[in-house]
């Protein structure tokens, strides 16, 4: 019997990784490694944070507030050693729609509420369930977000002048952009292409260089020195503040909370998925293991704090987290230092950001969006199965054409149905009469399991059957039909359930119905090899002696059935 594994304690689930690292012993070498990694990540996060904020319809300073406040708290309280928190491209669509509909105040309220929801999800230990999101859904919605981000950057990338406000939906947006093509600004387009070229060149020949920062600095110098007629951060938003604003609670009146609750739910769902996916990526790169529920609590606290300082939604960022791991980080201190370095930039060099061309930031986000469309993974899923391809396509199309949350929910539901259908088809029922169990370990078709072959005529009054696979509601109909085909006149039925790993109430009800039929026929029912959990489910549905007998294995069950038959024959003779 396998030893039972004790459930993890509260401390094991919710102790931040920072505490774990400090307990293990943190020295000057670790601090130096984390400082180098934190600076590396800050250089990557600096232009990205501003670009994501601008694409989301708010000022660039709000992206920096989010990276500084949210990034510090995610690393300090989080359940991952290497997670880097901050604004993420995946939120651009939702944030832009929220700002357009409810204003910046609505964004702050939704972010704060989302933080409370994420903390509640962590305390309720729901982080474990986020990993059940099917892989085709994550690939589909990530690719869909990438396409939407790319479309949202075309206006600044080409310096277009629209006749009216830019539509939010994709197809009307593309139509409006197409109509504005004659207004292309050659200088803006050239700067955007130059930024993209610099990023691609650095990735190919100097992958360890800060490609985003180099592209932004180079294009800003070019635009300033040549005096190119392009929009910059300064011309559109003014000078970035030198420091953080004073914290303040957003308007949490009942009417506003009710109004923004659906938006907060969307932020919560996407934030949980993104942050835990990022933590999983960090685990695969580092060989460590994150605490999912602790991570959700930290993400929630970070979102609440970000809203207090005027920031946006905070989540784990895969690209910056991967950069942190590759830069040699030892623990969460690197993420905290990355936030400190960003704060130093705001205090010292904020005026320089005014010279950054918006076209260069659009080119930067265009490369981010292109990388979000995981072409190799999409091709693999399309080749894998029609079911995975369908889930991928439905999720992608709904995200692009309708709504992000709808795409995730429908994709998840469709993926779940396909999975249940596959599980139902995997359930096997082998029947026959008379039969004996034999060893077919050399038969590749059975995977080394035992099988059945014709038995001597003496066992004609014993009908044998084996059920293998998860016996749940999806397979209950097929199993019931097979059981109904068993011989109606045997003295005993022997059913081998050793290969049934789980049994739900529908499966147990199916067995109860068969046991009732067997009793009506005057036949005994023997269940062999049932695991403890399966046996408990059967007993709870009234499948118990005297009409049903449990045996440890098939051999004992067949022997008991034979002895009962012989005993019955002797009583008949006397």
TrEMBL record:
Origin superkingdom: Bacteria
Gene3D superfamilies: STAS domain (3.30.750.24)
Main location, first listed in the record: membrane
Basic and acidic residues composition bias: residue spans: 437-447
Localization (cell): Membrane
STAS domain location: 460-561
Region: Disordered, residue numbers: 434-454
Pfam family, one: STAS
Keywords: Membrane, Transmembrane, Transmembrane helix
Topology versus the membrane: Multi-pass membrane protein
Parts of the chain that traverse the membrane: 35-55, 67-100, 106-126, 133-154, 174-202, 209-228, 260-282, 340-370, 390-420
PANTHER family noted in UniProt: SULFATE TRANSPORTER
UniProt name for this protein: SulP family sulfate permease
Organism the protein comes from: Sphingobium lignivorans
């Amino acid at each position: 019997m396998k030893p039972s594994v004790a459930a993890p304690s509260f401390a094991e689930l919710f102790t931040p990784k920072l505490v774990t690292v400090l307990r293990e012993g943190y020295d000057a070498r670790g601090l130096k490694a984390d400082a180098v990694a934190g600076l590396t990540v800050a250089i990557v996060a600096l232009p990205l944070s501003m670009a994501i904020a601008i694409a989301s319809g708010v000022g660039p300073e709000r992206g920096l507030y989010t990276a500084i406040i949210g990034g510090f708290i995610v690393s300090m309280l989080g359940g991952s050693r290497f997670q880097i928190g901050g604004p993420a491209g995946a939120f651009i669509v939702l944030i832009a729609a929220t700002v357009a509909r409810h204003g910046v105040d609505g964004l702050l309220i939704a972010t704060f509420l989302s933080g409370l929801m994420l903390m509640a999800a962590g305390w309720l230990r729901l982080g474990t369930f986020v990993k059940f999101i099917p892989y085709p859904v994550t690939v589909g919605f990530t690719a869909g977000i990438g396409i939407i981000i790319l479309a949202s950057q075309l206006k600044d990338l080409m310096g277009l002048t629209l006749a009216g406000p830019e539509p939010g939906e994709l197809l009307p947006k593309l139509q409006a952009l197409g109509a504005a093509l004659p207004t292309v600004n050659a200088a803006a387009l050239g700067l955007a292409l130059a930024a993209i070229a610099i990023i691609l060149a650095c990735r190919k020949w100097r992958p360890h260089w800060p490609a985003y920062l180099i592209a932004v600095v180079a294009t800003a110098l070019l635009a300033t020195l040549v005096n190119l007629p392009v929009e910059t951060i300064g011309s559109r938003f003014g000078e970035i503040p030198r420091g953080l604003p004073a914290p303040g609670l957003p308007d949490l009146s009942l009417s506003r909370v009710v109004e923004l609750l659906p938006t907060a739910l969307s932020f919560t769902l996407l934030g949980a998925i993104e942050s835990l996916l990022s933590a999983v990526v960090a685990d695969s790169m580092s060989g460590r293991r994150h605490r999912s529920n602790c991570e959700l609590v930290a993400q929630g606290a970070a979102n609440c704090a970000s809203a207090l300082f005027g920031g946006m939604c905070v989540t784990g960022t895969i690209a910056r987290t991967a950069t942190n791991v590759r830069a040699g980080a030892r623990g969460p201190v690197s993420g905290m230092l990355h936030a400190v370095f960003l704060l130093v930039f705001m205090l010292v060099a904020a005026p320089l950001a005014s010279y950054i061309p918006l076209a260069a930031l659009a080119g930067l986000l265009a490369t981010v969006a292109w990388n979000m469309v995981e072409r190799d993974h999409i091709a693999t899923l399309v080749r894998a199965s029609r079911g995975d391809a369908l889930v991928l396509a439905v999720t992608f199309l709904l995200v692009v054409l309708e709504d992000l949350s709808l795409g995730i929910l429908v994709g998840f539901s469709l993926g779940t149905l396909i999975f249940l259908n596959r599980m139902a088809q995997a359930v096997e029922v082998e029947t026959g009469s008379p039969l004996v169990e034999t060893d077919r370990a050399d038969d590749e078709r059975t995977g080394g399991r035992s099988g059945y072959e014709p038995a001597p005529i003496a066992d004609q009054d014993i009908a044998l059957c084996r059920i293998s696979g998860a016996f749940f509601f999806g397979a209950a109909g097929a199993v019931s039909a097979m059981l109904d085909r068993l011989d109606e006149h045997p003295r005993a039925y022997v059913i081998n359930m050793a290969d049934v790993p789980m049994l739900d109430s529908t499966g147990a009800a199916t067995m109860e119905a068969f046991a009732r039929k067997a009793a009506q026929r005057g036949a005994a029912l023997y269940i062999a090899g049932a695991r403890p959990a399966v046996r408990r489910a059967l007993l709870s549905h009234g499948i118990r002696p005297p009409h049903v007998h449990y045996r440890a294995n098939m051999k004992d069950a067949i022997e008991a059935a034979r002895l009962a038959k012989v005993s019955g024959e002797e009583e008949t003779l006397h």
